[in-house]
Design brief:
Blueprint lengths: L7 E7 L5 E4 L80 E4 L5 E5 L4 E5 L5 E5 L6 E4 L5 E5 L15 E5 L5 E5 L10 E2 L5 E6 L2 E6 L8 E4 L5 E4 L7 E6 L7 E7 L11 E5 L4 E6 L5 E7 L13 E7 L4 E3 L8 E6 L5 E6 L4 E7 L4 E8 L3 E4 L5 E5 L8 E5 L4 E4 L8 E4 L5 E6 L9 E6 L4 E6 L4 E8 L54 E2 L12 H24 L25 H40 L1
Antiparallel strand pairs: 1-2, 1-35, 3-4, 4-5, 5-6, 7-8, 8-9, 9-10, 11-12, 12-13, 13-14, 15-16, 16-17, 17-18, 19-20, 20-21, 21-22, 23-24, 24-25, 25-26, 26-36, 27-28, 28-29, 29-30, 31-32, 32-33, 33-34
Helix pairs in contact: 1-2
InterPro entries: TIF2A, TIF_beta_prop-like, WD40/YVTN_repeat-like_dom_sf
Family: Belongs to the WD repeat EIF2A family.
GO molecular function, one term: tRNA binding
């Protein structure tokens, strides 16, 4: 597959004339960004058959091809006129299987292999040659995953036990992709973290077994090369990148002891002080650990199921930073509320967090956990960096309206604000220019479909699933890093043939008594604008809101003291008061500001009290000296 032609794959299920499964964009058409005219078998088909419309049902050359070729469909594997076309065209096989349910599919990391399950078998094909490689008899498989170098295919099916075998049936299988043989079978009861973790070169593989992390080397699953044992290990994450390999483990707290996350370097586990870093914290029922691409730091999102303060129904979250150099810190988030999403930039030098009660804030932090840029507040709950790390999309999906903000993170400039209502899925294309949004089941079972966008906000393609069908999954064909070079960011909207849909303006309900009166603009929340938090050259570090508030108070007190001193200075040599003036009369000199006069009055009271107190102390000292002198004389 050419690097300029990433495929878009989708799975949807029909319910008319029996269930049928369609895997889009794995067919005869080599889709050029899924939006161009393509050529099908140019060496064997007639000229009139070379042009077909991508993403539509078409007939292929009705005037030249035989009847058996008229049913060719652009987005499926089909048989191309088996009785009339040459043998080189027979590799295109039909994938529409009536009565079968597609439960899972996956691409390999480099996008050259594709595997799917149809309810009866697991099929593995080569995307480049379009040939079937293997077919495994695993009808109950619901999860699939390739190893990073396409050596092993891991499959998982729900754990079951038989009456005769109390130990249960192994439900995690590892297959050799080249030979099709089963390398090893394990018992994996939980679906969570079912797949073993491989290093990028596949020299190391790890899985969590009974509070231990078992390590296998060179895909030899018959021998455990090493073990990491800690009491009640709940989760672990293997670092990306080359050697030396690192692993982050999480141990939940118990009996008043705090939870902690530790970083180790393989295979140094048993030595004293072997941990590279350690971070302990309370209020953690579960954690999410995120390595950066260079494996130099981990972000830990610790969350509780219940917020004991009652501030949030969804529990309480905190964000922690742990570096492999031993540094650790709590990331201070200026706004209270849940943490919706945290993502690393591919540069591994900064990360973005979306947090706070709605409207949520989004902030970019550096490796010192200092804020670099604050995007203000808005209806958002997710963040997505482009594969090259130069564009950031802030979006509000799920129960929000689907508003997106596309930012240039090099200049921190807003590119576009498209709207994708009812979206439940978002994914960047490996080329770093296109994105796909989709409405999928079971999150939403109506109005399913997907859209292909350019990051400038234009819709390049739209596909709506029929009302009697459901779209379950959509994904891009992956490619290795470096295949698509980074392109300069453009701010001009890319033209599109798809008609734009203007969103309907939502108007607030107005009771009949107010409908003939002018509309008054009122906001429930004050919107905060974007703000550059990076210190400018020659300027000090920007202060937080609390620090600015304290600084203003300090300046106000300082000004009040100066005014009080200026008022006291002429009173050092006061003129004799007239006899008619009462003794308790206070000077009526004012500054014109009631608040300032009040502060001056309070300061004068404090000064008078301190002077009287000093006089009393001096009298006590005199009495004490007199008593001592009298005792000495006696």
């Amino acid at each position: 597959m050419a690097p300029s032609t990433p495929l878009l794959t989708g799975v949807h299920q029909r319910f008319t004339h029996g269930a049928a499964v369609e895997l889009s964009a794995l067919g005869t058409a080599v889709l050029s960004a899924a939006l161009k005219w393509v050529k099908l078998a140019p060496d064997h088909c007639p000229a009139s058959a070379r042009r077909l419309q991508a993403l539509k049902w078409v007939k292929l050359a009705p005037d030249h091809c035989p009847a058996s070729a008229h049913g060719l469909q652009a987005l499926k594997w089909v048989k191309l006129a088996p009785d009339h076309c040459p043998a080189s065209a027979h590799g295109l096989q039909a994938l529409k299987e009536s009565g079968k349910n597609c439960k899972a599919y996956t691409f390999s990391k480099d996008g050259t292999l594709f595997a799917w399950g149809n309810g009866e078998k697991i099929n593995v094909i080569s995307v480049t040659t379009k040939g079937l490689l293997h077919s495994f008899d695993l009808p109950k498989t619901v999860c699939l995953e390739f190893s990073p170098k396409n050596t092993v295919l891991a499959t998982w099916q729900p754990y079951t036990t038989s009456k005769d075998d109390t130990a249960g049936i192994p439900n995690l299988q590892l297959y050799d992709v080249k030979t099709g043989t089963c390398l090893k079978s394990f018992i994996q009861k939980k679906m969570q973290n079912w797949c073993p973790s491989w290093s990028e070169d596949e020299t190391l593989c790890a899985r969590n077994v009974n509070n231990e992390v078992h390590f296998f080397e060179n895909n030899n699953f018959n021998t455990i090369a090493n073990k990491l044992h800690l009491k009640k290990i709940n989760d672990f994450v293997l670092s990306p990148g080359p050697q030396p390999y690192k692993v982050a483990v999480y141990v939940p707290g118990s009996k008043g002891a705090p939870s902690f996350v530790r970083l180790y370097q393989y295979p140094n586990f048993d030595e004293p002080h072997a941990a590279l870093a350690n971070k302990s914290f309370f209020k953690a029922d579960k954690v999410t650990m995120l390595w950066n691409k260079k494996a130099t730091a981990v972000l830990v999102i610790a969350s509780t199921d219940v917020d004991k303060t009652g501030a949030s129904y969804y529990g309480e979250q905190t964000l922690h930073y742990i570096g492999t150099n031993g540094e650790s810190a709590v990331v201070q988030l200026p706004k209270n509320g849940p943490i919706y999403d945290v993502v690393w930039n591919s540069s591994s030098t900064e990360f973005c967090a979306v947090y706070g009660f709605m409207p949520a804030k989004a902030t970019v932090f550096n490796l010192k956990c200092d804020p670099v840029f604050d995007f203000g507040t808005g209806p958002r709950n997710a963040a997505y960096y482009s594969p090259h790390g130069h564009i950031l999309v802030l979006a509000g999906f799920g129960n929000l309206r689907g508003q997106m903000e596309v930012w240039d993170v090099r200049k921190y400039r807003l590119i576009a604000k498209p709207l994708a209502p009812d979206s439940t899925h978002f994914a960047w294309c490996p080329d770093g220019e296109h994105i796909v949004t989709a409405t999928c089941a079971p999150r939403l079972r109506v109005n399913n479909g997907y859209k292909v966008w350019h990051y400038t906000g234009s819709v390049l393609h739209k596909h709506d699933v029929p009302s009697n069908a459901e779209l379950w999954q959509v994904s891009w064909q992956p490619f290795l890093d470096g295949i698509f070079p980074e392109k300069a960011i453009t701010y001009q909207v890319v033209p599109s043939d798809v008609p734009s849909e203007e969103p309907k303006a939502a108007t607030a309900y107005r009771p009949p008594a107010l409908r003939n009166k002018p509309v008054t603009n009122s906001k429930l929340h004050e919107e905060e604008p974007p703000q550059n938090m990076k210190p400018q050259p020659g300027n000090e570090k920007p202060l937080s809101k609390t620090a600015l508030k304290n600084q203003r108070k300090h300046e106000a007190k300082k000004a009040a003291k100066q005014e009080a001193r200026s008022d006291k200075s002429p009173d050092k040599a006061p003129a004799p008061a007239p006899q008619s003036t009462p003794r308790n009369t206070v000077s009526q000199a004012t500054s014109g500001d009631p608040e300032t006069d009040k502060k001056i009055k309070n300061l004068k009271k404090v000064g008078d009290f301190s002077a009287k107190h000093m006089c009393v102390l001096k009298e006590h000292e005199i009495l004490a000296t007199d008593l001592n002198d009298g005792r000495r004389r006696k």
